[in-house]
Design brief:
Layout: E1 9-13, H1 17-25, E2 30-34, H2 49-60, E3 65-70, H3 79-91, E4 96-99, H4 102-111, E5 117-119, H5 128-137, E6 141-143, H6 150-159, E7 163-170, H7 182-187, E8 218-220, H8 225-231, E9 235-238, H9 245-261, H10 266-275, E10 281-282, H11 284-287, H12 300-305, H13 308-318, E11 325-332, E12 338-345, E13 348-357, H14 368-375, E14 383-385
Helix pairs in contact: 1-2, 1-9, 3-4, 5-6, 9-10, 9-13
Length: 387
Amino acid sequence: MKKMQKQIEILAPAGAFESVIAAVNCGADAVYIGAEKFSARGFAENFTMEQIEEAVKFCHARDVKVYLALNTIIFDRELQDALNLAKAAAKLNIDAVIVQDIGIAMILKKAIPGLALHGSTQMSIHTPAGAKYLYKLGFERVVLARELSFDEIKVIVDSCPIETEVFVHGALCWSVSGQCLFSSMLGRRSGNRGMCAQPCRLPAEIPGGNGYALSLKDYSLLQHLEKLQQAGVTSAKIEGRMKRPEYVAAAVSAFYAQRQNGAATDLQKENLKKVFSRTGFTDGYFTGRLNKEMFGRREHEDVTAANSEVLEQIRKTASIPCKHFAVDMHLCAKIGQPAKLTAKCGEYEVTAKSEKICEAAAHTALTYEKAKQQLAKTGATQYKLGS
């Protein structure tokens, strides 16, 4: 079944509320966050239920979706706690839950019928059969394995009506997503429990290597975003819930510009590399160029590139919303009556009245142009004056 092509979603990571704000201001259509338990990024700051509620309210007011990562393997003794967490998130109007564990997925499907389920990349879905299986189970979306080429992604998209989410920027594992046992074998810290110690970033020598034989560069498919959209991919996912808000801002800004304008600016590309890279980026899996150019590590120059000047410039960008919603306003001011202002944005409408009564002007009367000028002052919000 052929999907209708539409604008690809830009999905941003948020390990803390500051990153939510940065993502939304820079143009993200959705953010994904983790709670204090059952998140594959156990070392991120993560969110309490109160903070999840705050994030959902903030995002939904700006037409941005929020997905909750409940994407670790769940032990039997934890099933009730995981279910309670999902129920609480559903009451807060979370837009979807990202899961790895098939068992908890089936429990959630039965216990919370209206809850949208996304299959995590930790499920290692890399074939049409895998995508069809999740679709049959009632999943709305599959987050595809990061190790797929474009041709492999396209085959999956065309094979099944399920939504597809593809990682377009961020860290790569040495192993296939969801299949690595390296950390758990060496240090009893399992990546499938959100506790990966990243041993693949440590020195490992092979003849002719760089001394870090298992450390891959970060992935970046910035220049391939339009190709993914044309192929029918639903969502472009940025990795990085453990990274700072400036990283989120730089990544979202670059991908938003790439989608809206056909290309990110040179400054955005430069900031994307400066804020975090491992001697540059790779698109090796996507293009099928599997070679030594995919490998890299954090050098001193990579660390110092994100100096205070760069970070401050990115923070300024992230403080100003890049998307605005038109608000239609109607002001009624009559002598002897309170002034009344009605503001409408989409399906929302609010009316406010003044406490004081309007009087005849002693010097300069209120004009249409003066009223319009004042009402257009929406400040650093995501709203602008419509009609």
